[in-house]
Write a structure and sequence with these properties.
By secondary structure, the protein is of the alpha+beta class. Helices cover about 60% and strands about 5% of the residues. The chain is built from 37 helices and 9 strands. The longest helix has 25 residues, at about 710-735. InterPro entries: ARM-like (IPR011989), ARM-type_fold (IPR016024), EVH1_PP4R3 (IPR055236), P4R3-like_central_dom (IPR006887), PH-like_dom_sf (IPR011993), PP4R3-like (IPR051137).
Length: about 800
């Protein structure tokens, strides 16, 4: 049987002063040759790997806290902690540490934490200890001065802590607090405030255990009410005893657990509300207080998880129809606080926590709760759902796909979430924004499990578009049945009364469009099929005429995202339905106003020009040029027209363009099919993008023959030989076409002959007038036409 005495968790303190769980294992001590000393070793209980190997340094300060914790620092800003399952194991290792350092095991700290000057150290070592004044009413000022003077010196701080602990000084001070409060002795109360605050800064676990005990903690809070810097004392005790009420929605049978919950709440209140803000003193002087709260929370969550009866009763009452509304409201709020409480846990502990809730049926319970009429209950259930989605979206996706096989679409969990988003009554749609973020997380392929066959992505997206997308898009489709946004939102099966197309409705439509835009970017064919089959883009562009500019921009952004994909299926859909028309109308209606709408529309047309989206460019010019030709404050539309004319020129002169393709490509064409493929490649190549001396991109690997696999040198020599034969054939073809070509043919022939002389790179610039002039001036250098003709004979 495993020795549970030595079972520990290893923690390290991160930069945010939070403890990170490094794993669970079993601790031992022994001599390590490599470290040349006795060391602490922790091996993982799962695979036996080494979690910790730490030499017990004679000068390291080890602290024992709460009977089951040992904390120490190995380097600057690197703190370690061992949390033991049993007190006996902690005592055994603590004795070993004290044995190595030559310390008495009864102490809770073995060394001083910070070095001091040699004089201070000598003086402190020569003094036997710190003697506290008698705990009397007329000596409180002296005690306060002693505490204040000891805080700057770590060694004096340690001696003060030992003196306070050994003499039971805290309980004596709290007795004086009752006397001062009864006598209304404000001066004494102010001194007690400074003393108790100073004891907190001693950062010692043994003192915290006394102050946070059931009999002392309220008196400690009472001392901290009388801040001398405030005109009136605070009323913290009144709040904790009268205002803050502990509601036991499910009976807790374990008295230790109940006491731990009370203690943690009060200590957290002291840290957050009673003590001065961290900027008043160094935060590391309260590190032990942070650790005390942290480990208390870990212990509480663990104890509740282990109580199966408690969780079983909780979920049974949540889903029981006989549970009254007030009781269910308390149960949901408890579960919400329980989930929020778990956020302080480390990943391993949080993983176990949510697995336990999942096994207990938290998702079916949430589905029942979300279907209830109480808005407060639904709001709390939404918060719980957000914790689950943020923790493990795959778990939620798996549940909703399984339930779709048994339930109708209307009661699916994810559809309930969508309907709550649509029906949010908050004027600012705070809840809808939160729910939209959760939906976005669920449909994001980036956080779906990357398995070999990627089944989660395929299965869930197919499920979502089949069972849920129609619910999400219902408000959009209901509000765009006409050429202008409807004045009434038609969702009668969701809302009891229609809502006007006001600012709130427009915000909702903007949220839906934002999610659809995300889907366009990440969902490829699923959203493509839905948009084309349901004619979604045309309905979205109806919102371009909305009186709300942000909604019109959302619809424009949706179209811009589609165009940015450069997908010909989308392009044909846009052209077939003339979907640029509402965009052009909105642009013209905007007039000369220089605003976001103006810039966004111009940017979209500029994208068509720069990226040379040929089909959409031709569609825009052929159908909307008359409306856009007078716009000259930007060159976008004239540039778009120029692109269009260049395309038409290539289409009207296929022979010329074919010859350009031939001259640009110095590969030997073996058949007509190869020639057609290369002409197509030339049509798709922008002349402006080619630089001087740059050759056309070689054909794809599909066009390569077996000869291309030969040795590179032999391949190069064969290509040169083929090119020589090819150039003579091209010369005769040029003579035949001479009388039908423009001046650019002369330039091409001249460049071709130059190529024969050894120039490999050949680029044609038919519109370059400067080359024509240069060619005229250098006639003597070029061979006459008759000589050129003889080349082909």
């Amino acid at each position: 049987m495993t020795d549970t005495r030595r079972r520990v968790k290893v923690y390290t303190l991160n930069e945010e002063r939070q403890w990170d769980d490094r794993g669970t294992g079993h601790v031992s001590s022994g001599y390590v040759d490599r470290l040349k000393g006795t060391s602490l070793l922790v091996r993982a209980e799962s695979d036996g790997s080494l979690l910790l190997e730490s030499k017990i340094n004679p000068n390291t300060a080890y602290q024992k806290q709460q009977d089951t914790l040992i904390v120490w620092s190995e380097a600057e800003n690197y703190d370690l902690a061992l949390s033991f399952q049993e007190k006996a194991g902690c005592d055994e290792i603590w004795e070993k540490i004290c044995q190595v350092q030559g310390k008495d095991p009864s102490v809770d700290i073995t060394q001083d934490l910070v070095d001091e000057s040699e004089e201070e150290r000598f003086e402190d070592m020569s003094s036997p200890g710190l003697e506290l004044p008698p705990c009397e009413l007329n000596r409180l000022e002296e005690v306060a001065e002693l505490v204040a003077s000891s805080l700057p010196s770590p060694l004096r701080r340690e001696k003060l802590a030992l003196a306070v602990e050994n003499e039971g000084y805290i309980k004596k001070l709290l007795e004086l607090f009752h006397v001062c409060e009864d006598l209304e002795n404000h001066e004494g109360l102010h001194h007690l405030y400074e003393i108790i605050k100073g004891i907190f800064l001693l950062n010692r676990t043994a003192l915290f255990e006394v102050m946070f005990s059931e009999e002392c903690i309220m008196d400690v809070i009472g001392c901290l009410e009388f801040d001398p810097s405030l005109p009136q004392p605070r009323r913290h005790r009144e709040f904790l005893t009268k205002t803050a009420k502990f509601k036991e929605v499910i009976p807790i049978s374990d008295p230790e657990l109940k006491q731990k919950i009370h203690q943690t709440y009060r200590v957290q209140y002291i840290q957050d509300m009673v003590l001065p803000t961290p900027s008043v003193f160094e935060e590391n002087m309260l590190s032990t207080l942070h650790s005390f709260i942290f480990f208390n929370k870990v212990e509480i969550v663990g104890m509740l998880q282990d109580d199966e009866k408690f969780l079983t009763d909780l979920f049974a009452q949540l889903t029981d129809e006989a549970t009254d509304d007030d009781k269910r409201h308390e149960l949901v709020n408890f579960l919400k606080e329980f989930c929020a409480f778990s956020q302080t846990l480390q990943p391993q502990n949080r993983d176990a926590f949510f697995k336990t809730l999942s096994n207990m049926g938290i998702l079916p319970a949430l589905e029942v709760i979300l279907g209830m009429d109480d808005p407060q209950v639904r709001s709390a259930a939404t918060d719980i759902f957000s914790y689950l989605v943020e923790y493990n979206p795959s778990m939620v996706r798996e549940f909703v796909m399984q339930e779709s096989q048994q339930n109708d679409d209307d009661i699916l969990l994810i559809n309930l979430i969508i309907e709550h988003m649509i029906c949010d009554t908050d004027p600012e749609l705070g809840g809808a924004v939160q729910l939209m973020g959760l939906l976005r997380t669920l449909v994001d392929p980036e956080n779906m499990l990357a398995t070999a066959n990627k089944t989660e992505k395929t299965e869930f997206l197919s499920f979502f578009y089949k069972h849920c997308m129609h619910v999400l898009s219902a408000p959009l489709l209901a509000n765009t049945t006409e050429e202008r946004p409807s004045k009434v939102l038609r969702i009668s099966y969701i809302l009891s009364t229609p809502r006007p197309d006001d600012f709130q409705t427009s915000q909702l439509l903007a949220l839906i469009l934002e999610l659809l835009t995300f889907c366009v970017e990440h969902h490829t064919y699923h959203i493509k099929n839905y948009i084309i089959n349901k004619d979604i883009l045309r309905r979205v562009l109806v919102l371009m005429s909305s009186c709300h500019a942000f909604l019109a921009l959302c619809s424009l952004r949706f179209m811009r995202k589609i165009i940015g994909l450069k997908d010909e299926f989308y392009n044909r859909y846009i052209m077939r339905n003339f979907l640029f028309e509402p965009v052009v109308k909105a642009f013209l209606s905007n007039g000369s106003r220089y605003n976001l709408m103006n810039s966004a529309i111009i940017e979209m047309f500029e994208y068509l020009r720069v990226e040379d989206v040929k089909s959409l460019t031709a569609h825009v010019i052929e159908n909307y040029w008359k409306a856009l030709e007078d716009i000259d404050y930007v060159q976008t539309f004239k540039g778009l027209k120029l692109r269009y004319e260049q395309q038409r020129e290539r289409q009207d002169n296929p022979k010329l363009d074919s010859m350009r393709s031939i001259l640009r490509n110095h590969r030997y064409r073996r058949d007509a099919r190869t020639l057609e493929d290369e002409e197509e490649m030339w049509f798709n190549t922008d002349e402006d993008d080619l630089e001087d001396g740059e050759a056309i991109v070689p054909p794809s690997d599909k066009m390569k023959s077996d000869d291309d696999l030969m040795d590179p040198i032999s391949k190069f020599m064969e290509r040169r030989k083929c090119m020589s034969n090819k150039l003579f054939l091209l010369s005769s073809r040029v003579v035949c076409l001479y009388y039908y070509m423009s001046v650019c043919v002369h330039v091409c022939v001249a460049k071709m002959c130059s190529y024969c002389s050894g120039i490999v790179g050949l680029v044609d610039y038919p519109d370059d007038d400067e080359e024509e002039d240069e060619d005229t001036e250098n006639k003597e250098e070029s061979p006459p036409l008759s000589k050129k003709s003889k080349l082909s004979s």
